[in-house]
Amino acid sequence: MYQQYFQDSEWLSLPLVALVFFFLFFVGVLVRVVFGMRDERRVNELASLPFESDRPDSQQQEQRDV
Length: 66
Known about the structure:
This protein has helices at 2-7, 14-36, 40-47, 57-65. It is mainly α.
């Protein structure tokens, strides 16, 4: 029943293109996390971001200057 409907459809390649796009994006994120986060200072800086609002403004300014 659906074979005749899908047989003439020109949009059948879109799901495959979307799958390839999201797969490549996922692989790119994995590569970024594995290879891009080897600098321990950068990881510690990103890990402390949620706690920056708890510090007084003078300490936040010192952290940005360093």
